[in-house]
Design goal:
heterodimer, A: mainly alpha, two-stranded antiparallel sheet, 2 strands, 1% strand, B: 425 residues, alpha/beta, 50% helix
């Protein structure tokens, strides 16, 4: 009888232990690290308590690895915002197109569209990196054939950002496409037919029936992709390495460099915590919007 | 309920204990060493090849080699240091980490082994440049035996130079004089190099130090904005002027591709040596590519950076003697042809001039010759960040955002923050 009483507690212990060990403890420990100066490359220096200095340095605009936090935040917002808007717009366009009866049966195309999303970001980065080479890359070779201008994709600050955006859109538009296609196909056909009988144009059907019907899916896409875009690192690392110079050095890239190239663990933890705050602000905003809906 | 599952849980735990103890009993008959390094032909393939040969003659030893890409490999070692050590027995170690890891008692001083093997030690001292050997010495103790050597090389297309009727330049002024004669973009750019931010400071090193510069004075006060620093930054800008525009984003593999396969570069004035450009299996133009000393100033030889790695022993290793035996085998004079056959890059002068090795890797003599003019890069933990700052500012010069003087002034100012703790000391 006594053992029966404790059984539920016994059953949750593994889950709680795992959560504590791999979720809560690292969170608390990394916050503790963010209050310290700690270099793994110079372990003899030890771990020294510096209070909020790491956070203060970031917030007052002190440069970290040649760029300050606000500059990097701005680059992140340009990159993330542009990708998000274009991925949603292109995904929506594709979904609307493929939701039409005439194209519904083209399963092959739907599967093909998914391929980029299934590739590892490192592979995507390397494929694009070689294609973008202005001297011997495929893209400029093809542009040259049709006498179009051949940009310096990875060596010009403007074009390097465009390069990143194109690669990310190529990889992740299929995600919004698939989610939105599912959402559109779940709208009762009767509603559209009734609207059509009442004389609504295709545009009006889209505006007053389709769009309201997929708002939930749209918000979820924005939420998931938004979080992803704030913490994307691998593509930038492979494709531009934050360059030329630091022109595409987005926040997660800098946090990674601080932590895993220069092993400034304390500073990297502070950097990551500031990013967590940003991501949480983003989540709170969208969850509130979703609730209101 | 708990009683019902108690018996199976106890039985399972007992079974696991039996299996686990069986494994360790089995392992006791054979010594297992764990080694850490990087992957790729120069690192992973060569080490695995040497391990294969070693265990053939030492069947009681098993060596598991873990190869990780550079940053991950450095990270694994750093985490092992933070965790108290012991994860690896044999460590491929970059000389710049020797001091920090020796102070942290992570690396084992190998003096005892060297004294115990006088003929091997004497041979090593006679066959490796003292400046290279000293990179693995810290506070009068030796911590590793160099097993891999490297320095900067001027790779060039012999056929293009001949076609243009120009001699191989020996100075920077000669290089820029002949550049217009070789320049025919987009087919061929006179110059090129991997100038991406994390390599730029490396490339800048050769003209900077050759012009008499150094990063800081004896009190670690930064001085990269010296005349030498600005001059070297201007040279970088001039190199970039004659290079493919995307050289600013190139890493080593793209530079190799451009010079070795695309054939769009005539001269790479200063870049790390490697087994790609003169290897016909990896480079289409391998037979047309020559190696030389990078340019210098005013008829003087340049000063080039020294690279390479050593093999060290973890202070927490239980098998230090066995680890040492493998290091001796790896670095022994008689095994260097074997090392090169496994695509390794030796450091012994006898191996770098061995005709058998040169046939396999024609660039090896250049490493030997150029190392004579080599100096080690700084070995303090802050140096990685200094290189980053320099890289950012050199990019500003190449992109035309700042003058060489302004960029070096800014780099120098930023270095004050990085070097603050050293300067206080």
């Amino acid at each position: 009888m006594r053992s029966q009483k404790y059984l539920p507690w016994f059953m949750v212990v593994p889950a709680v232990a795992i959560l504590l060990a791999f979720g809560i403890y690292p969170l608390i420990y990394s916050f503790r690290l963010s209050l310290h100066s700690y270099s793994l490359l110079d372990p003899s220096r030890g771990i020294n308590y510096v209070g909020l200095e790491n956070f203060r340095n970031l917030l007052v605009g002190k440069q970290v690895l040649g760029i300050n936090f606000s500059e990097s935040l701005w680059i992140t917002l340009i990159f993330g915002g542009t990708c998000l808007i274009l991925e949603v717009v292109l995904g929506l366009g594709g979904a609307v197109m493929f939701s039409r009866k005439t194209l519904r049966s083209i399963q092959f195309l739907r599967i093909t569209i998914m391929i980029p999303m299934l590739l590892a970001p490192v592979v995507v980065g390397n494929i694009w990196r070689y294609m973008y080479q202005s001297s011997f890359g495929l893209i400029n070779f093809l542009l040259g054939i049709v006498n179009l201008p051949t940009p310096e994709w990875l060596s010009n600050p403007f074009w390097s950002m465009i390069s990143l955006i194109i690669a990310d859109i190529w990889e992740w538009t299929p995600f919004s496409f698939l989610v939105l296609l599912a959402a559109i196909l779940s709208i009762p056909v009767g509603q559209l037919e009734a609207a059509s009988v009442d004389g609504a144009t295709g545009y009006q059907q889209f505006l007053y029936i389709t769009l309201p019907g997929i708002t939930g899916a749209l918000l979820i896409i924005v939420l998931i992709r938004g979080i992803e875009l704030i913490r994307i690192m691998d593509l930038v690392y492979i494709l531009t390495y934050g360059g030329p110079g630091v022109k595409t050095a987005i926040l997660p890239f800098n946090a990674y460099m601080l932590g895993f190239k220069y092993f400034e663990i304390g500073k990297a933890a502070a950097y990551a915590y500031l990013m967590v705050v940003l991501i949480n602000l983003f989540i709170v905003f969208f969850v509130r919007t979703l609730r209101e809906r | 309920m708990f009683r019902k599952i108690r018996l199976p849980v106890i039985l399972l735990a007992a079974a696991w204990l039996v299996v686990a103890s069986g494994c360790s009993v089995g392992a006791k008959s054979k010594v297992t060493l764990v080694s850490i390094g990087m992957p790729g032909p120069r690192y992973g393939l060569s080490t695995n090849g040497m391990i294969k040969e070693y265990v053939k003659v030492n069947p009681n030893v098993e060596i598991k080699h873990e190869g990780y890409p550079e940053e991950e490999y450095i990270g694994k070692i750093a985490l092992d240091v933070a965790g108290g050590g012991g994860a690896y027995d044999i460590i491929w170690i970059d000389y710049k980490f020797i001091g920090g890891y020796a102070d942290a008692n992570y690396l084992y001083p190998i003096d005892k082994f060297l004294l115990g093997n006088p003929s091997f030690w004497k041979d090593i001292q006679n066959d490796i440049y003292p400046v290279v050997l000293d990179m693995y010495k810290y506070k009068d103790h030796w911590y590793a035996i160099p097993n891999d050597g490297n320095t900067h090389i001027m790779y060039h297309r012999k056929d293009l130079l001949q076609e243009a009727g120009v001699e191989l330049p020996e100075s920077w002024s000669e290089l820029f004089e002949i550049a217009p004669k070789l320049h025919n973009p987009p087919e061929v750019y006179a110059l090129g190099g991997h100038m991406r931010r994390n390599y730029a400071a490396d490339m800048w090193f050769t003209p900077f130090v050759s012009a008499g510069g150094w990063y800081w004075n004896k009190d670690y006060v930064p001085q990269v904005n010296s005349e030498a620093g600005v001059k070297a930054a201007e040279i970088m800008k001039r190199i970039y002027k004659w290079s493919p525009p995307d050289a600013i984003s190139w890493e080593e593999s793209e530079y190799n591709e451009a010079l070795g396969n695309a054939g769009i570069i005539a001269i790479g004035p200063t870049a790390w040596g490697g087994n790609v450009l003169t290897n016909p299996d990896l480079a289409k133009f391998a037979d047309k590519i020559g190696t030389a000393l990078p340019p210098g100033f005013n008829g003087e030889s340049p000063t080039v950076p020294l690279g390479g790695y050593g093999l060290g022993i973890n202070a927490k290793s239980q098998y230090k003697d066995e680890a040492w035996k493998f290091i001796m085998f790896y670095t022994a004079r008689e095994n260097q042809e074997m090392l090169v056959s496994y695509t390794g890059q030796p450091v012994r002068n006898s191996a770098l001039t061995d005709p058998v090795n040169i046939k396999v890797a024609p660039y090896l003599p250049a490493i030997g010759k150029n190392s004579k003019y080599g100096v080690p890069r700084p070995v303090i933990a802050e140096f990685a960040k200094v290189e980053q700052i320099l890289g950012v500012e050199l990019m500003n010069v190449l992109l035309g955002d700042k003058s060489a003087k302004q960029a070096m002034d800014d780099a120098n100012a930023a270095m004050y923050t990085i070097m603050a703790s050293k300067m206080k000391k």
